[in-house]
């Protein structure tokens, strides 16, 4: 069976390939007609679930369908995500919960259920991998796909395969996704944000420079508020202004970031889709009901978080070499500290002790509303925690931790606790997952 010839128009509902200029599909009458001159030649996609956590909750409780929903950790927490109804009222991710409720007092607040979201994310990930082996996850709810060379497998060009995938996710999983299709990762990601929710946007190579010219510099990866302020102080607000600058000038002004600005401003991105890029870090964090300054109160929380991170590392058969401590002060200022180990680890003992050293330097009387710990620079677990010739007791502690893991696996996490956490565990308001 031969695959159909790529067309410049596709109906996103009935998947009819129909060249022409009609506003509606000739076959089903749908207005969701996708039209682009390069539609048949593009194969790099970015797929992003729409308001993922909130969408899963609305799927499971139809009474929430037309109501504003915020996923977060109570009045002391922050917004993990919000549905589009809440966003219209000014609610944004990472906004303090009290501000979100001021903006949308009628919102229904639901605590995150990460196990449920992870299960849905895994199901969608498997559906992506059924399309192509080249899937690069960015988080629980988004990923890059490279569908180059899959036309014979699917008997359809990538644009049709992606439209079919979006329909399948909606019908089988019960949530919606937005799709960006382009010739490179940078513009595929930009495209997926253009028409949320249920979007499908295309950015072709011929139009890339002109399309980017009017966009703000924050469209470029790595240009956050601080760097955007630096660029604005130099009179640079749009990507078009960057396009008119010489590469050497950008390098002189902004170092290695200047090279990124030069190439991405012109739509040049030669990074491939890497399926090995699944997890960049594994972390866990908690927001307190009341700000805490005392080290002896922070320590048991750090220990419990370290154990959670260790559990996830061991479950995934991975380890990491860099320990990251995250603290947020009562006035929402973020502190991040890290230390690189001599060897990768997945042991709660090493994660905790390294995090504790970092924490002691920060416990200067400052009151904290959030603490987190994570492990980055991930690698295979086979390289983790070799015998330490200096710390001769490390091997015994590792064996003891293994015995504790076995008991907890059999009788539950609370069956065995260390002196740090006994009777002092705090239930997290919200926690982060592998990224």
Automatic annotation (TrEMBL):
Pfam families: IMS, IMS_C, IMS_HHH_1
Residues at the catalytic site: 142
Cofactor remark from the record: Binds 2 magnesium ions per subunit.
GO biological process, alphabetically ordered: DNA repair; DNA-templated DNA replication; error-prone translesion synthesis; SOS response
One annotated Gene Ontology cellular component of this protein: cytosol
Cofactor: Mg(2+)
Residues binding Mg(2+), per UniProt: 48, 141
Site (Substrate discrimination): 53
GO molecular function: damaged DNA binding; DNA-directed DNA polymerase activity; magnesium ion binding
Compartments, record wording: Cytoplasm
EC number: 2.7.7.7
Gene3D superfamilies given in the database record: 3.30.70.270, 3.40.1170.60, 5' to 3' exonuclease, C-terminal subdomain, DNA polymerase, Y-family, little finger domain
Residue span(s) of domain UmuC: 44-224
Reactions listed under catalytic activity: DNA(n) + a 2'-deoxyribonucleoside 5'-triphosphate = DNA(n+1) + diphosphate
UniProt keyword terms in alphabetical order: Cytoplasm, DNA damage, DNA repair, DNA replication, DNA-binding, DNA-directed DNA polymerase, Magnesium, Metal-binding, Mutator protein, Nucleotidyltransferase, Transferase
The protein's assembly and partners: Monomer.
NCBIfam families per the UniProt record, alphabetical: PRK02406.1 (NF002677), PRK02794.1 (NF002751)
Family the UniProt entry places it in: Belongs to the DNA polymerase type-Y family.
Functional note: Poorly processive, error-prone DNA polymerase involved in untargeted mutagenesis. Copies undamaged DNA at stalled replication forks, which arise in vivo from mismatched or misaligned primer ends. These misaligned primers can be extended by PolIV. Exhibits no 3'-5' exonuclease (proofreading) activity. May be involved in translesional synthesis, in conjunction with the beta clamp from PolIII.
Protein name: DNA polymerase IV
Organism encoding this protein: Nitratireductor basaltis
